[in-house]
Fold this sequence. Notes:
The complex is a heterodimer.
Chain A: E1 3-14, E2 21-32, E3 36-40, H1 47-55, E4 62-67, E5 70-71, H2 77-87, E6 88-91, H3 103-113, H4 120-129, H5 145-157, E7 163-167, H6 175-191, E8 195-199, H7 203-207, E9 211-216, E10 219-220
Helix pairs in contact in A: 3-5, 5-6
Chain B: H1 7-24, H2 29-58, H3 60-64, E1 68-73, H4 79-88, E2 89-102, E3 109-116, E4 127-129, E5 145-149, H5 150-156, E6 163-166, E7 169-179, E8 192-196, H6 197-201, E9 212-220, H7 226-236, E10 244-246, H8 253-291, H9 293-302, H10 306-333, H11 335-342, H12 357-379, H13 389-392, H14 404-423, H15 428-458, H16 465-475, H17 481-510, E11 520-526, H18 530-540, E12 545-559, E13 562-563, H19 564-567, H20 575-578, E14 581-587, E15 596-599, E16 610-615, H21 616-622, E17 629-634, E18 637-647, E19 660-663, H22 664-667, E20 673-679, H23 684-694, E21 699-702, H24 703-756, H25 761-798, H26 807-828, H27 837-843
Parallel strand pairs in B: 3-8, 5-7, 14-19, 16-18
Antiparallel strand pairs in B: 1-9, 1-10, 2-3, 2-6, 2-9, 4-7, 5-8, 6-7, 11-20, 11-21, 12-13, 12-14, 12-17, 12-20, 15-18, 16-19, 17-18
Helix pairs in contact in B: 1-10, 2-8, 2-10, 2-12, 2-24, 8-12, 8-17, 8-24, 10-12, 12-14, 14-15, 15-17, 15-25, 16-25, 17-24, 17-25, 17-26, 24-26
The structure holds adenosine-5'-triphosphate and magnesium ion (MG).
Amino acid sequence: MNAAIQFNNVSLSYGSKIDPVEVLKGINFSVSSEEIVSIIGPSGSGKTSIIMLASGLETATEGSIKINSQEIVGLKENKLSEVRRENIGIVFQSFYLIPNLTAIENVLLSLEASQKYNQEQEAKKLLSEFGLSHRLGHLPSELSGGEQQRVAIARALINKPKIILADEPTGNLDSANSQIMMDLLFDYTKKSKTSLVMVTHDNSIAERCDRIIEIKDGQIV
Amino acid sequence: MVKLFDTQQLRLINKYAIRDFSRSYKKLWVIASTLFISLLLLSLTFSVKEALNNEIEANSKELLGGDIQVTSGIDPLPSLVFDELKVLGEVSIAIELATMVSKKGQAPVFTELRAVDDNYPLYGEIVTTPLGASKKIYLNTQKPTVLINESIQNLLQLEIGDDVVIMGKSFKVAGLVVSVPDLAESAVFGEFAIISKSSYDKFELSSGGSFLDHEYRIKFNNNIDVSKQASLVESIVAYDDSIETRLPGQSGRSLGRIIDNFSNFLNLVSVSAMIIAGIGISNTLLSFVNQRNTSIAVKKSIGFSSNFIQLMYFYEIILILIGMSVIAYLFGVFSPLLANELLPKSLGIDLQPTVSLIGYLNIFFIGLLVVLIFSIPSLYSISEIKAVALFRNTFQPVSLNFSSKNIILLAILVTILITYFVLQTEQKFYTILYFVAFFITMFIFYGVSKLLISFLRRFHKFSNNGYRIAYRNIVAKKSLAPIMTVSLGIGLTLLLTLSFVANNLKQEISDNIPSMAPDLFFVSIDRDIQPDLESFIKSIDPEVTLEFSPMASASFISLNGTPIEEIVSENNRSAWVVRGDRRISWSEKSNPDNPIIEGEWWEPGNENEMFISMDSRAAYDLGMSINDKITLNILGRDVTGTIKNFREVDYRDISINFAIIINKAFANKLPYEYIGTLKSDMSSNEILAKVVEKFPNVSAIKVDRILSQVSGVLNKIFIAVTGISLIVIVIGLIVIVSAVLVQTTFRRYNNLIYKILGVDFPTILRAMTIEFVLIYLTLVFFALSVAIAGSYLIVENTLQLTWRFDLGLTLWILLTTALVSFVMILIANKSIFSPKVYPLIRNE
Ligand SMILES: Nc1ncnc2c1ncn2[C@@H]1O[C@H](COP(=O)(O)OP(=O)(O)OP(=O)(O)O)[C@@H](O)[C@H]1O
Ligand SMILES: [Mg+2]
C-alpha cells in the first residue's frame, strides 16, 4: 500500500551556502493513508518546518518528498498548487480566515479552488456538524476563537483531502475548546479515511494518535 | 494551471471580483476617480478634435466659398481670362481690402471690407440680423448699404439704419453679419463689413494699394470630374506666378493646423494625466495587495495559484476601466456642444457630437495600456507573498515587482502605447520627444530617491528621536521613499510646468502694450499722398513722432533656383515668411534696432543688382546662408538677388519690421507705397478722425485694438491651460493620496509598535514631518529644474514669447503643494492619533 506522505533523506537549510542554518537534517519517515501522526519536540526543533515541506509551501534543500507517490520537490508553483488542492488540507495555529468573507464563504473558497461549484449544501452540512449552523453568515471578526478555528478546520476538510496537516491547531484555544476541536478532527479523519499529521505540545492529544514522531535539533529521535 | 479560457474558472473569477467589489468599493475609489478624470480629459480632446475636423471637411466647399478659388492679388484678372473661367461655371467675384469705417463723432475703425457681386455666396449663406438683410446691399437705392459685424457695431455704437462713411462715401447700415461661410481667419476676432461690388466700383480706386485682394470663386457647371476642371482652371491662370488657386480643404488648412497644434498639446497633457493616474493605480493596487497579504497567503495555502489571484484583481480593474471609460466617453462625446458655445460665432461652425464604437475603443485601448503598464508591477508582487508566512505569523510587505520578465513586458507595452499615440498625432517628433522626456523624468525621480537614501546613510549620526525614526523609515529595506518621490515629483513637475506656462501667458497679456509702441499704424498709403499726409498730421500736432517706410509687395519664388515649396515644409516655424504675399521694404543703411548678426550691409548706389537683408531667425529656419540667391516675384516680375546679411528682428516691438529688406538703389525702380507709424501725446482717435475725413483712402490700425485682439486670443489659451492645470492638480493630489495609502498600510503597524514601545505622539509627528520635509526638499530642486526647462521650451518655441521666472508664484505653488500633501498624509495616517489595537489583532 502506498504511503500518503513519504520523506526521504530530507534536509532544509536557510541562509547562504557558506554559512547555512541547518533546520532539518536527513529526515526519513512516511505516513500511510488513514494514519494519524503527531509531531512533538522542543521549540525550534523543526516541527513547523516539516509541515511546511509536506504542504509544498516550502522547498526542501535536499532529498525527496512524495505526496501520494507524487514527487513534489522541484515542482513549479502552479503544479504545487494543484497537488495541494487535490491532496492537502491545512489548519493553522492562528486560524487565518479571510476577514471580508463570511464563515460559509471561507469554507466554499476551498471547494472553488478545486473547481467544485454549487456545493453550498455540503458546506452548510459540515458547518452544522461543527455546531456552527447559526453562524454561517458571520464575518470572522464576529466569531470567537474556537468558532474561527472550527471554520478553519471545516475549510481544510470540505474538499475531502487525503491528508490534513495541522500546526498546533489548538495552540490558541483553551482546554475545553481544544477538546471539542480534537474530537471533531479525530472523528472526521477516521470517518473519511484521511491521514492526519499534527504538530502539538499537548501530550494528551499526542497520545490519542496512532503514532508519535519526536524531533530534536532537526532530526527524528 | 489556470486555463485562460476555462469558463468555470472565468465564472469564479467574475464571482470573486464582484464580491470583492461590493465589499471594498471604498478602497477602489482612487483607481476609479483617477481613471475617470484622465479618461474624460482624453475623451474631451479627441471628441472636440474629431468634431472640428469633421466640420471642416464637411463644409470645405462652404469654407472656400466655391469648387475652386483664384486669387489675383491687387489687380483684377484680365477680362479674357475671366471669360474663360465663366465657361466652366458660375463665377463670383469678391474684393477684399483694408479700409476705415467711420461715423461722425467716433474714431474711425480699421475694417476688413469685402465687396461681393450678387452671385455671392456660391455655397452656404450670409447669416444676418435682421434675416435677409444681405439682399439689401444689392438694391439700387440712392444711398448704398453695408453689412457690418458686431464688433464694428460696438466700436462705433451703431444702430441699423445709421450712416457710416467708407472711403469718403456714405453708407447706410442694412444689418449685422452673424456669419459668412468663407470668413477670412483675420476677420474672426476683428472688424468685418460687406458691401456690394457695384458700390465698390464707385470708389474708382486707381491703385488699391497692397492691402487689396481680388478673389474669384467658381462653382462648376457639372459636378463630374471636378479635379479635371480644377486643373483646367490652374492651366488658365498658369501664365502668372502670382495668381494662386485654392481647392476646398486647403482653405481650412491653417485653421486646421491651429486646431491640430492645440489638440496635440491637449492630448499630451491628457496622456500625462493618464500616466500620472497610472502611478496612482499602481500605488493603490500595491497598498491593496499589502492589505490583503494574509488573505492572499491563505488562498495560496488552499491551492489557488498566484496567476489566479492576479487574474482576479486584474479582472476587477478591467471592470472599473470599462465602467469609467464608458462614462468618460459619453461625457466627452457631447463636449463639442459645449465647444460650440466657446468658439466665436462668426466662424459659423456648428460642431456635431459623433458617437462611434471606434472612438470609444480608442479611448479604451489607451486606458487599457496604461492600466496594464501600471498594474503589472503591483499585481506581480502577489507572487512574492509566501504562504509559509501563515506558519510564522509575520508578514513582509511586498513592493513593486520588476523582474526581468516584467521589464521586457513593460517595455513592449510602453512602446505600443507610444507608437499608438504618436500615430494619431500630427507632430510625431515632438510627441516622441515629450514621452521620452516624461519617462526620463520618472527615472530621474527614482534616482533622486536612491540618492537621498544613500546620502542619509552617510549622515545618520544625528541623535534626535524624531530624526532617527524618520531616517529608519526612509532607508528601510522596503522604503516608501521611491514611490513617494516619483509620484510627488511627477505631479509637482507637471503642476509647475503648466503654471509657469499659464503665468507667462498672463504676463504677456497684462503688459504687452509697450510704452514705446506707436498709437497708430498706417497701412497702404499712396506714394502721391504721403507728403501731404505727413504735413497734414504735423499741422495737427507739431510734436508728433511719425515714421514712414516705403513698401512693395513680393512673393517668394525660389532659393538658389529650387522652388521654395520643395524646401520649406508646412510645419516650418518660419513658413509664413515664404508663403503668400510678403511686404518688403528697402533702406540704404542698417537700422540700429535691427542689429546685423552675420554678413555686412551693402554699399549704396548699385541700381542693377538686388541685395537682400533677411530676418536671422527666418533665415536659420529656412536654411539660408550668406550669398545665397533668392528669387522674388515683385509685381509680376521675377527678380533674383543675393543675401548680404542677417538681421535680428524683434517683431514684438511695434515699430515697422520687415523680414526682407532690399537695397534702395535697386528698389527705386519699383512702384511702391508707404506704411507708417504715429506716436503722439494727443488722442489718437482725434487725429484718426481728422485724417480719415481729409484722406478717405488712408487706413490706419489703432495699435491698442490689435493688442486687445491678441490678448483676447491669449486669454482663451490662458483659460484653457489653467483649466487643464486644475485637472492635472486634481489627479496629482489623488495620486499623492494613493502614495500615502501605500504608506499607511506599511506604516500603521510600525507606528503602533512605536506607540506600544512608549514613543510619544509628538515624536511620531515630528518623525513624519522630518521624513516628509527631507523627501520634499530633495525633489523640489529636480522638479523645479525640469519645470523650468519644459516651460522655457514651450513658451519660447511653441508660443514664441519671452520666458520669465516668477519667484512668488513658484514659492506659492511649492508651499501649497507641500502643505496639502502633508495634511493628506496626516489624514491618511489618522489611525496613529487614536490607534485601536483591538480590531487589528482580531482581524489579521
Ligand atoms: N527563514 C529562516 N531562516 C533561518 N532560520 C529559520 C528560518 N525559519 C525557521 N528557522 C529556524 O528553524 C528552526 C526550526 O523552526 P520551526 O518553526 O520549524 O520550529 P518549531 O519546532 O515549529 O518550533 P515551535 O515549537 O517554537 O513552533 C528554528 O530554530 C528557527 O530559528
Ligand atoms: Mg512551530
